[in-house]
Structures are given as C-alpha cells and as structure tokens.
Amino acid sequence: MDLLLDALKDSLEMLPFLVITFLAIEIFEHKFGKKFDNKIRTAGPLGPILGALLGILPQCGFSVIGVAFFSQGYITLGTLISIFIATSDEALPILISTPSAASKIVPFIITKAAFAIFWGYAIDLIFKKISIKINIIEEDPKDSCCGENCIDNAFSIKALIYHTLKRSFIIIGYVFAVSLLLNIMFSYKETSWFINTSINNSILQVLVTSLFGLIPNCAVSVGLVEVYLHNAINFAALISGLSANAGLALLVLFKEVKDRKYAGLITLLLLVCSILTGIILTLLKFNY
Known about the structure:
Layout: H1 2-41, H2 47-56, H3 61-71, H4 77-86, H5 91-96, H6 102-126, H7 157-186, H8 189-198, H9 202-213, H10 218-229, H11 235-244, H12 249-256, H13 260-283
C-alpha cells in the first residue's frame, strides 16, 4: 500500500505542471505547426538544423510528417534522421513537469539538438547519392500525427481543453505504472543491488536503452525518463534511448515501405547513431 501511495503521490504532484505544459504545446501546434511544416520543405542545406529544431518539440507527429516529406523527396535522409534523433515524445513534458528535474531540462534539449544536427549532416555527407522512395498513402501529414492528439483546423476552446486533459491523464497513467513498478523493484534487495551495479556499466546501459527506444510507442519515452529520474540509468543512456525512439514514425515507415530493406537501413542508421551518441557522452563523462 505504501508503494502504491508513493507512486500515486509522485504522479499527482506532476499533473498540474503537465496540464500547463501540454496546453502550451497544443496552442503552439495550432498556431505555428503549419509554418514549421512549410519551412522544413524548403530548408535545403539547413535541413538537419530545422529538422532538429522541429523534432525537439514534444509532439510525436512531427517524426511521422518527416517520413511523409522524405517519401516525397522534400527532405534528405540526414534531415529525416535529425528529426528522429531530436524527437523525444513525452520525455520533455515530463522533465518540465518535474520540479526536481529543472536543472536537467536545458542540458537535455541542447544535447539532443546538437547530436541530431551532427548526425544529420554526417549522414547527408556519407549517403549523398542515396534516394529512397517510400510508398506512403496519400493523405494530409497532419492527419497522421498521434491520431486524436491533433487539434482541428477550426480552433475550439472545448477541443483544446479536451485534448490537453486527455493527453495529460494518459501520460500520468504511464508515469504511475512505471513509478509503481520501479518502487516494487527497488523494494527487493536483490533487484536494487542489480540495478545499482548495472549503473556502473554505462556502455551496457546505452546498448539496452537504444534497443528499447526502437519500440514505436510513447510509453517507451515515459518509461525511459522515469527510470532516469529514479537514478536507475544515467544521462548518456537516457539520451541514447530517446534518440532511438522516433515515436510512430518507424511503424509508418515499415507499414508503407515497398522494399523493407530501405526501412531496415534507416532503422539501423538510427540505432547506430543512438548507440554512438551514448558512447560519446559516456567517454566525455557528460552526465546530469
């Protein structure tokens, strides 16, 4: 019962901050979302930079839009990877909504954006002549983003509040479940010892979180950031895991691609970049 109450308390304390954060995000998406979409289409050499800035915004739909743009030849492979690496799904809202994590927000954003830009240009340099054509069903990219999380073109206060609260309570549900699971795990001495011992093996953490991050579900980003906030993984492992987590984009990629080897290549590139990112941060002893 104590473990249950602790998890419930941690979740409810975050709720007001999460609602405010998601409200701001929903308003921003409605007001400026299309402008960002148009800019990324004509980004040219600035593609990886704009891709990273677009991806860092806490909305999984942008990575799906990136797949649609890439399939039409509007952006390069490097720009697509930069969007994927910068994307963090719900991780950033959770950090913003956790008062004790305030000092970690800026390093998190800068690190994710910097590596997204770096890998974007590196991949464009290496794969200059690659041209991958993906058979995506013709539809408005905005219709693909996270389903019900998008706000209709006709701006409605009722719709705004509905989507904000729904998104907030879904994430709180994930947070509660992960927190309860971690509380139970830490209550057993053997599990606690194993977790504390594994913290010293940073490279192993990076490999595990990067593979875990490939799962196309926003619950993965929630799980990673919650485990990090419980000090069960380090900053490098968090960044590598979230870099590999491109939201629903990989699911769309594999669902609609004509030749699966191309989707596999993009996924492999994303995984390798994510692992190398974690290793670089580990070697530099960059931790928060």
